[in-house]
């Protein structure tokens, strides 16, 4: 009897003990994650109100100089400059075009991918994931060669006689006017074309991975029903498939857009300095030539707010369209 | 429904464009001279020796990359495991907050997280140390093992757990004999995802390293001013091979289509 009592006494605190240690573990995890995942953003927010010391670093403070500089320019109130608005504009412009392009090209690919056998899908997924994880610096390196004047696309177009042909029929002038050609030859560096192309390439595998679950859950009997009733493949795509995957399409475009807002290497290498984005400006302020950490922080906050605004607007729009 | 020829054609075309920059970079590694020409001129394998053996800059960078990738991936798994387990056990508010925090660095433009981490480590004295880089990457990529481990846990039949409990197994025993074995492939997948992405990450480690050490991606970016060289292209080849090997292992020992969210009922 005494033995069973002792057993009871020993086992009684058991569950209570695991519960307590579980709670402690959870709170510990929460604390670690707060420090690692939330505090960095709080630092950005706090420092964006900080004070820049001329010729030195910065100190904590509470001033709106850096936001004013973003909104009205450095020389305000004497003069107004929209330089940073323009930078934000280019961030949004490049990211939006590249994200939509990537999703539009990923949609048919993913649809075909989900029709393959399990083995075929697995092989493609290995290729896609390897490409997706490849560092931006390597991708920029590849496109740098592919677009270079000496051994890339311009040289290929020249060798194939396409350059001379476009000159003959007068289209070459148009390429020169939009900045894709020098007086003699095609030239893709630096250009908005090269920037958007590389950015779209960068997120295309992500777009496939994001659309994959939705498209692989598509009920094939719906498509077959529409086909047996005589609908052409394009009609099926338009009337059956697209309405079913509209939400994932919009959602992944938004996600990739936000991701691309922060692209740095591609823009510095491929975009003309007059078309540099806010990410480049943040880099210059925090670590690069201009060294003004509070201003860099203020620009980061604005980039975050812009990203959040677009995400929210996108959600509202798709929710309104769904109801 | 069978895939038609134009479906295959589109896929092959997309695959070709996807591989083109990678093929060109790989070929450029064979260049005999210092410039990146395609097709390569005066082909040689000397660049491989430079990257892996004779040039200490690249050797050290590779070592740093490997150390940071392996440690941060291990740490990310250690952070993600309890989080995924708690969410699976009881999805109360605290668990959801934990999951939300883990997902946050992944949902914002990475440059902003990098800037923030740079400020935080400068404040705590960790800026420019390897361990700060490891912690930063663990925070950035913990969301990946969180997702894979959660998928693994969802696949466990709760009836097995009930059966174990009726037969007198404690939570610890049930965890060791049922939960752990079934989730090991997913844990390893999560580790590989985090490792490969950390290996290739650039912008966050740039702000966190503060130029006091370089990983391979950082070293390539630092040398960008003088243009790309064939030695860097060797790095690209090495990295691509690591990614393909890691994801092939995931595919071999786990169910890649399921991890990516494919429908289970169709084959």
From TrEMBL, chain A:
Q: Which ranges carry the ABC transmembrane type-1 domain?
A: 88-314
Membrane topology note? Multi-pass membrane protein
Where primarily located?
membrane
**Source organism, top-level taxon:** Bacteria
Question: GO cellular component annotations, sorted alphabetically?
Answer: plasma membrane
Pfam hit, one: BPD_transp_1
Q: Does the keyword Secreted apply?
A: no
Looking at the UniProt entry, the stretches that span the membrane are: 27-49, 90-111, 123-143, 192-212, 247-271, 291-313
Q: Where in the cell is it found?
A: Cell membrane
Biological processes per GO annotation: transmembrane transport
Alphabetized, the UniProt keywords read: Cell membrane, Membrane, Transmembrane, Transmembrane helix, Transport
The record's annotation in Gene3D superfamilies points to: MetI-like
The UniProt entry, under InterPro entries, shows:
MetI-like, MetI-like_sf
Give the family from UniProt.
Belongs to the binding-protein-dependent transport system permease family. CysTW subfamily.
> What name is this protein filed under?
ABC transporter permease subunit
Species in which this protein is naturally found: Thetidibacter halocola
From TrEMBL, chain B:
Give me the Gene Ontology terms describing cellular component. plasma membrane
Keywords from UniProt, A to Z, are: Cell inner membrane, Cell membrane, Membrane, Transmembrane, Transmembrane helix, Transport
Membrane topology term: Multi-pass membrane protein
Which parts of the sequence belong to the ABC transmembrane type-1 domain?
Answer: 62-250
Show the PROSITE patterns listed in the entry: ABC_TM1 (PS50928)
An annotated GO BP: transmembrane transport
What protein name does the entry list? ABC transporter permease
């Amino acid at each position: 009897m005494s033995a069973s009592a002792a057993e009871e006494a020993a086992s009684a605190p058991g569950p209570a003990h695991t519960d307590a240690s579980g709670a402690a573990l959870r709170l510990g995890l929460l604390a670690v994650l707060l420090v690692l995942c939330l505090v960095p953003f709080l630092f950005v927010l706090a420092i964006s109100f900080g004070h820049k010391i001329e010729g030195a670093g910065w100190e904590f403070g509470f001033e709106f100089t850096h936001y004013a500089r973003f909104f009205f320019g450095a020389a305000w109130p004497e003069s107004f400059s929209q330089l940073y608005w323009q930078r934000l504009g280019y961030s949004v412009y490049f990211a939006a075009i590249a994200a939509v392009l990537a999703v539009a090209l990923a949609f048919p690919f993913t649809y075909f991918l989900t029709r393959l056998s399990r083995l075929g899908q697995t092989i493609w997924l290995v290729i896609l994931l390897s490409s997706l994880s490849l560092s931006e610096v390597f991708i920029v390196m590849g496109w740098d060669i592919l677009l270079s004047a000496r051994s890339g696309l311009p040289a290929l177009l020249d060798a194939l006689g396409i350059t001379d042909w476009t000159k003959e029929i007068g289209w070459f002038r148009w390429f020169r006017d939009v900045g894709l050609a020098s007086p003699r030859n095609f030239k893709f560096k630096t250009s908005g074309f090269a920037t958007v192309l590389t950015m779209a390439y960068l997120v295309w595998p992500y777009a496939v991975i994001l659309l994959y679950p939705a498209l692989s859950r598509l009920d094939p009997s719906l498509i077959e029903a529409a086909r047996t009733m005589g609908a052409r493949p394009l009609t099926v795509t338009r009337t059956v498939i697209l309405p079913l995957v509209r939400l994932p399409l919009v959602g992944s475009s938004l996600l990739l857009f936000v991701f691309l807002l922060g692209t740095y290497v591609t823009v510095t290498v491929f975009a003309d300095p007059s078309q540099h984005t806010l990410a480049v400006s943040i880099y210059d302020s925090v670590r690069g030539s201009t060294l003004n950490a509070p201003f860099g922080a203020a620009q980061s906050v604005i980039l975050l707010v812009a990203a959040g605004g677009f995400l929210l607007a996108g959600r509202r729009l798709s929710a309104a369209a769904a109801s | 429904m069978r895939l038609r020829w134009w479906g295959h054609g589109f896929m092959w075309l997309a695959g070709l464009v996807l591989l083109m920059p990678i093929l060109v970079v790989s070929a450029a590694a064979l260049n005999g001279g210092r410039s990146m020409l395609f097709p390569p001129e005066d082909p040689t394998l000397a660049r491989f020796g430079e990257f892996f053996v004779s040039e200490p800059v690249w050797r050290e960078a590779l070592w740093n990359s490997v150390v940071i990738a392996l440690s941060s991936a291990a740490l990310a798994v250690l952070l993600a495991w309890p989080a995924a387990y708690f969410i699976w056990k009881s999805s109360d508010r605290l668990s959801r907050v934990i999951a939300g925090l883990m997902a946050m660095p992944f949902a914002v433009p990475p440059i902003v997280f990098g800037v923030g981490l740079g400020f935080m480590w400068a404040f705590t004295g960790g800026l420019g140390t390897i361990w700060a880089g490891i912690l930063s990457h663990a925070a950035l990529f913990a969301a990946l093992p969180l997702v894979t481990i959660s998928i693994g846990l969802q696949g466990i039949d709760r009836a097995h757990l009930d059966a174990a409990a009726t037969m007198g197994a404690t939570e610890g025993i049930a965890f060791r004999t049922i939960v752990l074995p079934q989730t090991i492939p997913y844990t390893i997948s999560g580790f590989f995802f985090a490792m490969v992405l950390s290996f290739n990450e650039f912008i966050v480690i740039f702000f966190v390293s503060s130029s006091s050490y370089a990983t391979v991606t950082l070293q390539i970016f630092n040398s960008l001013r003088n243009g790309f060289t064939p030695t860097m292209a060797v790095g690209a080849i090495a990295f691509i091979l690591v990614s393909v090997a890691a994801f092939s292992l995931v595919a071999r020992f786990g169910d890649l289509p399921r991890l990516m969210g494919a429908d289970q009922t169709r084959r």
